[in-house]
Amino acid sequence: MTDPSSRRVVDDDPKNLDEVGTRVTDGFRIYAVAYDAGTRKVLDTLPERGPDGRLAATASSLYAWKTWEQPTFHTRPKRSYDIVRKCFLALPDALAP
């Protein structure tokens, strides 16, 4: 990913090794493969392999998200806020600005 807000990804064209570009993708297909590292034998896949033993390029649903221009956010104290606050309150006044 180069820009998740626009679904822009690296486009490394093997025909043009001198330049790496970017492009917008329609989404991602997610696959999982479990294998035995010692024998390198495939134990299972998600989704299942086809009759030819391969994963079909369209066997998995396309995962995409709505693009955005302005990020949303919210503020909240971190879990350590009270710990740090107590440490600062325990410092002698002479160190206070």
Secondary structure blueprint with pairings:
Blueprint: E1 8-11, E2 21-24, E3 28-29, E4 32-36, E5 41-46, E6 62-63, H1 81-89
Antiparallel strand pairs: 1-2, 3-6, 4-5
**Element-level helix/strand string:** EEEEEEH
Physical arrangement of strands within the biggest beta sheet: 1-2
Structural class per helix/strand content?
A: mainly beta
Which term fits the overall shape?
extended
Descriptive notes:
It contains one helix and six strands. It has 97 residues and is mainly beta. The chain has a domain at 30-63. The strands form three sheets. It has a two-stranded antiparallel ribbon with strand order 1-2. It has a two-stranded antiparallel sheet with strand order 3-6. β4 (32-36) and β5 (41-46) form a beta hairpin.
What keyword list fits this structure?
single chain, two-stranded antiparallel sheet, mainly beta, about 100 residues
Briefly, what is this?
The chain has 97 residues and is mostly beta strands. The chain has one helix spanning 81-89, and strands spanning 8-11, 21-24, 28-29, 32-36, 41-46, 62-63.
